[in-house]
């Protein structure tokens, strides 16, 4: 456990919790103080690790006072939580027995999907199995036109038949997705009310995703319904555990991180769990952008390497969102941070495949049994390889609180080396096998970094790699070298960085509405017309229609944010438009202000290399982001008064390539701003280790970040 950076003062105790596959991380802020630590995750009962960790938080804070003399026992506390419960339930297909109710004749929409193929010329494509089997899909005799006109209303006998069929099927959750409900949701509301007698969660598509594209909207609401019982139970268990363990008068609430980079109440998350699928990695991206901004760095690639997976995200001054995310081939279509995940982490298992090639991941040893060096497992992992190569510098994990079994790790790597030897008919040493595991893991992560940068038209040489996660610091420089990234920033306390990120998040509510408005390029619509909602061309003018739609969304945002505890004075509303050229089947999101048409043409040229201002454009959907601005820890700077040459605490024998080398080991807690570290070096701290090989130079900046740059000598 370790005290960290100074933060801005704020009332009460704020605690960020990030649950990973291997560890659960905590950051607690009280006045000007912060503590951070990790406890092993409990995958079978995730709430258990959180409650254990919170007990440790309060033990550590006992007796502390803020600047005004207020004790921790006298203040309220708020918890913000990044969770992987929804992610794991979806990946492992351990959700609820779910029924799907659709307009009659559209029962197979989630099975037909789109014509897009992951491999164009593969005649044996394996499509993901729908979350709802055919016998649990029910059609209702109703119809609404594309303009929202009711053509056929479901009768009482039709609804009664549906209720009886769902009862007989013993479903645990229901998803309702009717044709064109985004234009008129009356029938979905009618069915939701009728189905409430079932006593199970009912998810309706116009609340989850009120947009056109039937398949994506249906997929989103099905995923929501599939996850709702499990996530709801988890959050109820956690909330009850918090209320039972801590004074109810002090506990002010539990917020859950969304995939979009904002947080919502636990109640909302339980009803709309699809919004939490990328909850865990979102916190790290939010924190990376904030720390980079403080360090006056605009363009970054966030690199989060944990125990189970690695998450990467390219950010151009801000975290980027997408509406085209997929999980295991299933589209989500709600706003999520643009994060790419690969199955490469400290716990990723190395093995020799049937063809004799060395592979690493995606299978992970997880928290139990964990890497061989944790003392329970016997399969070789990336962590075991780093330990065998001496890259932990003999210090164990968590500042020595968690000792690593080097003998067990060596045995696991030796068995892998024997398999590699048998496959290649050449002797493979322990160290060569370990270096092979590291090289393959790095190659997997390098592909992810290339995907979010080079394959999208961005030169990684123009970016800074912000490296965090417990395992990130050991691999960051190798990846930066491969992609010629000139600078790496390792933030203070990288091992619990995502937990800090959830504390830095605002409460965010996203709204959208499909409008399908065609814009003639010969007609100009200025900002004033949209702001006033009036033009001299009448109420059917696009400017008026856009403004009317936005005002409707803004009224809903005000109501929802008030329920979340935010008055209008603490709200911020951001308008945007999803636009395309007439005839296209994909959209770009642009700001709704000023000259949005010019913004669209510019965005199209940037993304695709061309634009045509003479061509008619369409506004497909209007979007609104409602933000409730929260109090956040403020990362304060320390002036760099002079350059300090770091003094190593010890030396360690480390394999950097083919042979061991004695290199200096530094304790990060002792490195003041302005300190320069001579490479090669290993910097150890609670929760993470950073490797700085020869050819690079490192320093501590005013925010206590480790800044690693290509050496000039």
Describe what this molecule looks like in 3D.
- The chain is of the alpha/beta class.
- Among the domains are: 90-231, Rossmann fold (3-Layer(aba) Sandwich); 507-628, no CATH class; 644-710, no CATH class.
- Helix content is 30%, strand content 27%.
- The protein is built from 17 helices and 36 strands.
- The protein has a nine-stranded mixed sheet, sandwiched between helices.
- Strand 3 and strand 4 (33-40) form a beta hairpin.
- It starts with a strand and ends with a strand.
- Mean pLDDT is 88; it is low at 1-10 and 527-539.
* CATH fold-level label of the domain at 90-231: Rossmann fold
Q: Looking at the structure, what is the overall shape?
A: globular
Overall pLDDT metric: 88
Strand order of the largest sheet: 20-15-14-23-24-36-35-32-29
CATH class of the domain at 90-231: Alpha Beta
Topology:
Elements: E1 2-3, E2 13-19, E3 23-30, E4 33-40, H1 46-61, E5 77-82, H2 85-91, E6 98-103, H3 109-112, E7 137-140, E8 143-144, E9 150-152, H4 156-169, E10 173-177, H5 186-195, E11 202-204, H6 205-208, H7 214-245, E12 251-257, E13 263-265, H8 266-271, H9 279-294, E14 299-305, E15 310-316, E16 321-322, E17 326-327, E18 330-331, E19 336-337, E20 340-342, E21 348-352, E22 358-364, H10 382-388, H11 406-424, H12 430-452, E23 464-468, H13 476-483, E24 487-490, H14 497-503, E25 507-519, H15 527-532, H16 542-563, E26 571-581, E27 588-591, H17 596-608, E28 617-628, E29 644-645, E30 650-655, E31 660-667, E32 675-677, E33 681-685, E34 688-692, E35 696-700, E36 706-710
Parallel strand pairs: 2-5, 5-12, 6-7, 6-10, 10-11, 14-23, 23-24, 29-32, 31-33
Antiparallel strand pairs: 1-4, 2-3, 3-4, 8-9, 12-13, 14-15, 15-20, 16-19, 17-18, 21-22, 24-36, 25-28, 26-27, 26-28, 30-31, 32-35, 33-34, 35-36
Helix pairs in contact: 1-7, 2-7, 9-14, 10-11, 10-12, 11-12, 12-13
């Amino acid at each position: 456990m370790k005290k960290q950076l100074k933060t801005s003062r704020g009332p009460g105790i704020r605690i960020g919790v990030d649950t990973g596959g291997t560890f659960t991380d905590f950051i607690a802020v009280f006045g000007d103080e912060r503590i951070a630590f990790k406890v092993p995750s409990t995958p079978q009962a995730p709430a258990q690790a959180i409650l254990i960790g919170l007990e440790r938080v309060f033990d550590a804070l006992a007796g502390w006072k803020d600047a005004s003399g207020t004790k921790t026992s006298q203040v309220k506390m708020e918890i913000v939580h990044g969770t992987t419960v929804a992610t794991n339930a979806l990946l492992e297909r351990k959700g609820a027995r779910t029924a799907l109710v659709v307009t009659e004749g559209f029962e197979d929409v989630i099975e037909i999907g789109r014509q897009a193929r992951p491999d164009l010329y593969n005649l044996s494509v394996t499509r993901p199995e729908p979350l709802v089997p055919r016998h649990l899909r029910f059609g209702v005799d109703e119809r609404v036109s594309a303009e929202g006109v009711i053509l056929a209303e479901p009768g009482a006998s039709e609804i009664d038949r549906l209720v009886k069929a769902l009862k007989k099927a013993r479903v645990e959750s229901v998803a309702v997705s009717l044709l064109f409900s985004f234009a008129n949701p009356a029938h979905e509301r009618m069915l939701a009310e009728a189905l409430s007698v079932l006593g199970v969660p009912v998810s309706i598509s116009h609340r989850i995703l009120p947009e056109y594209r039937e398949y994506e909207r249906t997929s989103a609401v099905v995923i929501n319904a599939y996850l709702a019982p499990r996530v709801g139970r988890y959050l109820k268990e956690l909330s009850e555990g918090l209320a039972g363990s801590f004074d109810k008068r002090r506990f002010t609430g539990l917020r859950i991180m969304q995939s979009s980079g904002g947080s919502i109440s636990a109640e909302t998350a339980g009803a709309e769990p699809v919004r939490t699928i990328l909850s865990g990695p979102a916190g790290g991206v939010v924190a990376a952008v904030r720390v980079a901004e403080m360090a006056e760095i605009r363009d970054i690639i966030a690199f989060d390497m944990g125990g189970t997976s690695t998450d990467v995200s390219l950010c151009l001054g801000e975290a980027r969102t997408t509406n085209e995310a997929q999980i295991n081939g299933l589209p989500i279509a709600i706003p999520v941070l643009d994060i790419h995940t690969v199955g490469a982490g400290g716990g990723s298992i190395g093995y020799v495949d049937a063809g004799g090639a060395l592979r690493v991941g995606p299978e992970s040893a997880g928290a139990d049994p964990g890497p061989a060096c944790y003392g329970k497992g016997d399969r070789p992992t990336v962590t075991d390889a780093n330990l065998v190569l001496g890259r932990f510098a003999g210090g164990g994990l968590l500042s020595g609180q968690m000792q690593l079994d080097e003998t067990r790790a060596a045995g696991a790597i030796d068995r892998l080396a024997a398999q590699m030897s048998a496959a290649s008919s050449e002797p493979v040493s322990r160290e060569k096998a370990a270096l092979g595991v590291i090289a393959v893991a790095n190659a997997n992560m390098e592909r992810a970094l290339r995907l979010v940068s080079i394959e999208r038209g961005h030169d990684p040489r123009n970016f800074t790699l912000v490296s965090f996660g417990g395992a990130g610091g050991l691999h960051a420089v190798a990846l930066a070298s491969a992609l010629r990234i000139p600078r790496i920033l390792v933030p203070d306390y990288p091992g619990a960085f995502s937990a800090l990120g959830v504390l830095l998040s605002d409460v965010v509510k996203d709204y959208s509405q499909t409008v399908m408005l065609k814009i003639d390029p010969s007609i100009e619509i200025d900002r004033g017309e949209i702001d006033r909602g009036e033009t001299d061309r009448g109420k059917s003018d696009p400017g008026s229609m856009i403004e009317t739609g936005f005002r409707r969304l803004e009224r809903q945002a005000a109501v929802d944010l008030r329920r979340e505890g935010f008055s209008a004075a603490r709200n911020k509303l951001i308008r945007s438009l999803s636009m395309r050229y007439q005839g296209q089947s994909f959209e770009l999101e642009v700001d709704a202000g000023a000259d949005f048409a010019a913004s669209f043409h510019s965005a199209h040229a940037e993304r695709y290399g061309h634009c045509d201002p003479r061509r008619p454009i369409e506004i497909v959907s209007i979007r609104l982001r409602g933000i409730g601005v929260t109090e956040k820890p403020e990362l304060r700077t320390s002036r760099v008064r002079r350059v300090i040459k770091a003094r190593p605490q010890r030396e360690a024998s480390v394999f950097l390539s083919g042979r061991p080398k004695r290199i200096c080991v530094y304790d990060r807690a002792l490195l003041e701003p302005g300190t320069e570290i001579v490479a090669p070096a290993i910097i150890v701290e609670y929760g993470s280790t950073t490797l700085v090989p020869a050819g690079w130079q490192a320093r501590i900046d005013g925010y206590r970040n480790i800044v690693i740059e290509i050496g000039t000598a």
